[in-house]
Amino acid sequence: MEKVISGIRPTGNLHLGNYFGAVKSFLQMQNDYDCMFFIADWHSLTTHPTPENIRQSVRTIFCEYLACGIAPEKAPIYVQSDVKPVLELYLYLNMNAYLGELERVTSFKEKARTQPDNVNAGLLTYPTLMAADVLAHKADKVPVGKDQEQNMEMMRLFARRFNRIYNVDFFKEPQSYHFYKNAVKVPGLDGTGKMGKSNGNCIYLCDDEATIRKKVMKAVTDSGPTQLNQEKPEVIQNLFTLMELVSTKETYDYFDEKYNQMTIRYGDMKKQLAVDINAFCAPIRERILAFQSDEQYIQKVARQGAERASESAAKTLSEVRQIIGFRA
Ligand code: ADP
Q1: Residue 3 a catalytic site member
Q2: Phi and psi (nearest 5°) for 161?
Q3: For the chain, how many structural domains are there in total?
Q4: 185 carries an active-site annotation
Q5: What local confidence, expressed as pLDDT, does residue 146 receive?
Q6: Whether 111 is catalytic
Q7: For residues 224-237, average pLDDT
């Protein structure tokens, strides 16, 4: 079975956009591939050198992924900083990564612009650490968003270069898996654009019922259709898109028909949408709370994930050492 590895940044709570845009694909992938998921806490030091509470944010994301249905017995979840052999590969790859090519990476240039007082070497070598995370397990595929494409090209370049320099056919070139092509873009509740943390328009999977209701009832609408079967403007289409994700087809068709007949009352639609979003989130929310209060279980999953990943990475590193000429 093909190996898939995916890094998850511990950047806060999961929202509906993350769920339908990424996590849902992961849930499918864990059945179809030999998957591993890791939480990229080392990478977060490139932008947050003294994270307030890294342990807490790693734990939160851990609980939320488990609550969504990532099944660690099928797809181990581990914390990046628990798998030390990756660091050694990071070092070897850095020895053959050149300043010019690292400086040309768009995300580096962007970060260098946004944090001019902290253009650190970790930021510069973000692609080598990412390559080490993946190559250490000789993964076949990496699920990535569009923004990671360049890092994937670097990863393939580092793999080819290693093979060339040491005259081996050792690393295969991991391929990008564009899961987002099949994923829906989840709109925000503020009328335009997508749901996203930086847009402040998210419904989080951990939001309680009252919070969900409040957010949905505040969603932007217009003054209503003025013609039969009128095309829906973006603000309204967004509500329908959300409804399509969380409600039954009957509910969706009911409001669609009302819209087409110009008899829709957005208040009613939003009330129903809030109920359906809550019904969707409630079981996930309950599992998040259950996992959060089960420290022992979380520790166990993290430890088992770390063991599996460390074993796989240690094997690769032993071979890499031999290839380079160090003691295996
Ligand atoms: P945010 O934009 O909220 O910071 P991230 O950038 O951490 O979220 O997103 C992680 C992944 O979640 C993305 O690669 C993307 O696949 C998915 N995602 C985020 N927001 C949405 C959205 N509104 N619709 C669909 N997918 C999304």
Answers
A1: no
A2: -65, -45
A3: 2
A4: no
A5: 81
A6: yes
A7: 95
Q: Which residues form the pocket of ligand 1, taking CB atoms under 6 Å from any ligand atom?
A: 11, 17-18, 20-22, 145, 180, 183, 185-186, 194-198
Q: For residue 86, report the phi and psi dihedrals to the nearest 5 degrees.
A: -60, -35
Residue whose CA is at the smallest distance from ligand 1 atom 6: 196
In this structure, is residue 159 part of a structural domain? Answer: yes
- Closest to 277 in 3D by CA, of 310, 245, 234: 245
User: Which amino acid would we find at residue 239?
Assistant: L
Q: Whose CA is nearest to atom 12 of ligand 1?
A: 18
Tell whether 213 is covered by a domain. Answer: yes
Output the pTM of the full model: 0.92
Q: Which domain holds residue 122?
A: 3-184+295-324
Q: Which of 172, 197, 232, 271 is catalytic?
A: 197
- Condensed to tens digits (0 to 9), the pLDDT of residues 264-289 reads 999 999 999 999 999 999 999 999 99
| DSSP-assigned beta bridge partners for residue 143 | 177
pLDDT, tens digit, for every residue of 177-215? 988 777 789 999 988 789 999 888 999 999 999 999 999
Q: What's the pLDDT at 248?
A: 98
Residue 258 alpha carbon to ligand 1 centre in Å? 32
Encoded tokens for 267: 């208040």
